[in-house]
């Protein structure tokens, strides 16, 4: 392990589940954090050959590796992986060297080979034998060849100009076609594995009787260079071989050797007569140097052949644009992310080699982000400034990658990075204070006002709830007077306000968001209670006790405009609801008293007279100016006296009679006259009865003596009131009379 890179070696075909190592231990990572840090293995391979245990960090084989399938003919087979961890973001490179095992036997391209050998060839004639192919590498590849025993042939190894070896069949004894037309040999290829593996192919040698010269190329190795984007039909090279034979035996046909891979034979064509090698289709291959074997065979009855090697160098052109791959993207990004926070990890590759594969990368300058090179072919997208979601909630970031080819090729990829909200804005009210006006005697639950605060944050961070801050109003807890809707800030009354008890107060409503931690703001609400006419005037003076009438004593000889009393009243309401006026609604003598409508002063309208009644009763109404108006009544008893009596008279049930000649007095006088007449008639009746009895006695001879007559014979007289010795009669009519009428009767002798 070095510089964030760890290298493992593993043999191919290792079974599933086999341990490779412990990535956490090897890289010095806490294995317990692998799962929480969302580890990922990134590879360009289509298969996932390895697994990491999230709990222990153990690295094991997920799928057996076939080195020959994965790396073909490469001498070194490497698998590159990147281990990505988040929180914080880290990237490690892992390299797996796949070691070859001897799991492939040498094989030949054809199931059997035929060689035509003229019978006149002398010993020492050589014939090229096919090369065996072994997909294993190193000592596990083909190491030697053997040939089955034959008296006419033996095997020798030869070396190409590039150092590669190939087998040749060498004639060691002259052939006699008449004795044996066909020789069946077995060519065996062996590798150097332990244990070694081998492959056989039959080699059938047919003895011919013609054409004893093989074609010869001008060069044993041809070299050519073409552009990788060369179109179909482009000439690569023209090979040329000569044959010393004449006629058909000297006519040469060119073809690709059977040992040339099928892929190369599809990419190139060779003209059989001219030897021109041309491009056939797209050069879809990543190797910069291609090796092709070309065979020249004459047209003799027993055609002879020779081979030459064609090395084709593929010159790269800038035909691949940079490929931008998003290895990791953290979106959304919190708006409070500090500058330098890694947002994304980008992999930018260009398949072209050399300068054409080198890439520069950039993003627009007007964004709060920047690209920083990371590992090879990787860039980190990081924040360069502070973010504010309330200003910009997301960014389209265009990644521009340009290679250094000529002309350069540019690739763009756009990332959408969303900015997530954090609770960095408290609720805001539109004003610092609000004034609310409410009438007293409001119903319970009456809506008073709705406060509203805005929060530019989103989601729960921007959802505002409202509460009342704890306080007291006139000694009462605010919660007993008001309530506020948690959701919309509507304020409701929990009791009926009384202007006379509480005219104004203030409180604070707190708006709090649902972020973490929560932010809040407060507003002061001033409540002004407006008055209603809900209080009747209160009579302060004169006052009555136990329901009795208040009594005022006035001198009997009081002058005009004498102040009898002053009605004092108060109204707890306000403004015009408390403006009072005084009205005299009843008086036992309407001509005697008057009431000041604004002052409440009860005064005499004239001087008192001796004939005025001693007791008077007045009723005063005190009325406010509300709508509707309310009033209170007070009854005042007035006693005409020069001194305060020991016991005040009762004013509750008695009322001083009106003047003498009103309707009631006339009725009483008539009643009294009637009673008096009846009494006189009765007296006359008694006198007549007495007289009749006396006359009856005289007629019968029984006369009364003279001195007795006066006792029994009488006259009735209405005497003047100055004669007091007679009986006094008080007559009471309907109701009570304040004066006594005296009737006197005088009885005298007739």
Automatic annotation (TrEMBL):
The chain crosses the membrane at residues 666-686. GO terms for molecular function: calcium ion binding. It is found in: Cell membrane. Potential calcium-dependent cell-adhesion protein. May be involved in the establishment and maintenance of specific neuronal connections in the brain. One of its GO terms (biological process) is homophilic cell adhesion via plasma membrane adhesion molecules. It comes from the Eukaryota. This is Protocadherin alpha-C1. Residues 9-108, 109-217, 218-324, 325-429, 430-539, 564-651 form the Cadherin domain. Keywords: Calcium, Cell adhesion, Cell membrane, Glycoprotein, Membrane, Repeat, Signal, Transmembrane, Transmembrane helix. The keyword Lipid biosynthesis does not apply. It comes from Podiceps cristatus.
């Amino acid at each position: 392990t070095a510089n964030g890179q760890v290298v493992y070696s593993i043999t191919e075909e290792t079974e599933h589940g086999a341990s490779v190592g412990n990535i956490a231990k090897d890289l010095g990572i806490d294995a317990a954090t692998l799962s929480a840090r969302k580890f990922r293995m990134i590879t360009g391979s289509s298969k996932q050959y390895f697994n990491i245990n999230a709990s222990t960090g153990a690295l094991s084989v997920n799928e057996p590796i076939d080195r020959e399938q994965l790396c073909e003919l490469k001498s070194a087979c490497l698998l590159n992986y990147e281990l990505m961890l988040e929180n914080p973001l880290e990237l490690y490179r892992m390299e797996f060297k796949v070691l070859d095992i001897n799991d492939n036997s040498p094989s030949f391209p054809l199931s059997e080979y035929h060689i035509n050998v003229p019978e006149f060839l002398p010993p020492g004639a050589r014939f090229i034998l096919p090369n065996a192919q072994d997909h294993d590498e190193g000592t596990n590849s083909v190491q030697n060849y053997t040939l089955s025993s034959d008296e006419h042939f033996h095997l020798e190894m030869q070396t190409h100009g590039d150092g590669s070896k190939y087998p040749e069949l060498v004639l060691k004894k002259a052939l006699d076609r008449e004795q044996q037309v066909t020789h069946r040999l077995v060519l065996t290829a062996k590798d150097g594995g332990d244990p070694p593996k081998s492959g056989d192919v039959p080699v059938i040698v047919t003895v011919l009787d013609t054409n004893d010269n093989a074609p010869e190329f001008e060069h044993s190795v041809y070299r050519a260079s073409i552009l990788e984007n060369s179109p179909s039909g482009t000439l690569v090279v023209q090979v040329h071989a000569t044959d010393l034979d004449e006629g058909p035996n000297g006519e040469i046909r060119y073809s690709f050797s059977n040992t040339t891979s099928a892929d190369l034979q599809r990419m190139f064509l060779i003209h059989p007569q001219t030897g021109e090698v041309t491009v056939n289709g797209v050069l879809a291959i990543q190797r910069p140097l291609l090796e092709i074997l070309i065979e020249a065979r004459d047209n003799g009855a027993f055609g002879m052949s020779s081979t030459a090697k064609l090395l084709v160098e593929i010159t790269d052109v800038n035909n691949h644009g940079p490929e931008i791959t998003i290895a990791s993207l953290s979106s959304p990004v919190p708006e409070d992310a500090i500058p330098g926070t890694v947002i994304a990890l980008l992999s930018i590759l260009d398949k072209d080699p050399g300068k054409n594969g080198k890439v520069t990368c950039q993003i627009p300058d007007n964004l709060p982000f920047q690209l920083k090179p990371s590992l090879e072919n990787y860039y980190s997208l990081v924040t360069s400034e502070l973010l504010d979601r309330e200003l910009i909630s997301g960014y389209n970031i265009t990644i521009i990658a340009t290679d250094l080819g000529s002309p350069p090729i540019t690739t763009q990829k756009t990332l959408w990075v969303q900015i997530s909200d954090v609770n960095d804005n408290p609720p805001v009210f539109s004003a610092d204070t609000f004034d609310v006006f409410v009438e007293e005697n409001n119903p319970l639950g009456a809506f008073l006002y709705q406060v509203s605060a805005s929060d530019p944050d989103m989601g729960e961070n921007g959802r505002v709830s409202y509460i009342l801050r704890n306080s007291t109003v006139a000694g009462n807890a605010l919660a007993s007077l008001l309530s506020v809707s948690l959701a919309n800030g509507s304020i409701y009354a929990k009791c009926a306000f009384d202007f006379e008890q509480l005219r104004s107060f203030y409180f604070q409503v707190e708006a709090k968001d649902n972020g973490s931690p929560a932010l809040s703001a407060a507003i002061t609400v001033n409540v002004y209670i407006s008055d209603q006419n809900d209080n009747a005037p209160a009579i302060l003076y004169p006052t009555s006790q136990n329901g009795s009438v208040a009594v005022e004593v006035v001198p009997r000889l009081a002058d005009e405009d004498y102040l009898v009393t002053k009605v004092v009243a108060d109204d707890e309401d306000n403004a015009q609801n408390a403006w009072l006026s005084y009205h005299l609604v009843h008086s036992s003598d309407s001509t005697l008293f008057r009431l000041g409508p604004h002052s409440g002063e009860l005064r005499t309208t004239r001087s008192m007279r001796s004939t005025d009644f001693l007791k008077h009763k007045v009723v005063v109404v005190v009325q406010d100016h509300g709508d509707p108006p309310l009033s209170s009544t007070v009854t005042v008893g007035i006693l005409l006296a020069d001194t305060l009596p020991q016991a005040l008279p009762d004013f509750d049930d008695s009322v001083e009679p009106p003047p003498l000649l009103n309707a009631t007095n006339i009725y009483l006088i008539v009643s009294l006259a009637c009673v008096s007449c009846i009494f006189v008639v009765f007296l006359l009746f008694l006198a007549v009865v007495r007289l009749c009895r006396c006359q009856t006695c005289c007629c019968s001879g029984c006369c009364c003596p003279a001195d007795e007559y006066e006792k029994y014979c009488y006259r009735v007289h209405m005497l003047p009131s100055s004669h007091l010795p007679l009986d006094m009669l008080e007559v009471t009519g309907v109701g009570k009379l304040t004066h006594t009428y005296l009737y006197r009767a005088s009885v005298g002798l007739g």
